[in-house]
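User: quick one, fold this
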Amino acid sequence: MKQSIHTKQGFATLIAVLVLTLVATSVIAVSLLVSTQTFQANANSREGIQARFDAQTCVEIALNKLKIDNTYSGNENISLANGSCTISAVSGTGNNDRSFQTSGTSQQSIARIWIDISEIDPDMTFTTWVEQ
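Assistant:
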């Protein structure tokens, strides 16, 4: 009879250890999954932010070139340290009513900015500045 009690206690202990191990393994697996998803989301966010910075860089380049020479026509691809950007063809001529689009690319992320300028000189006046 003594042996039967020890066997039952040993079996109960074994089951308890197995259940606790299963619970601990599940918690660790879920934690790893959440950590991996958070890491991926942060990486995607960084790429999106970098793409937006790249698009803004091309806006600044295009605006400076238009300010220096209002016949600037755009159509440029520019390599940057952490990505690239593109300036579309600049529509319009002269000092008034000019527009263009830029796009920035970083890894798999793309950001676009649309610009409409009502006047370049003496002070640049924007009618539209849309970031996507």
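User: anything notable?
Assistant: The first helix runs from residue 2 to 68.
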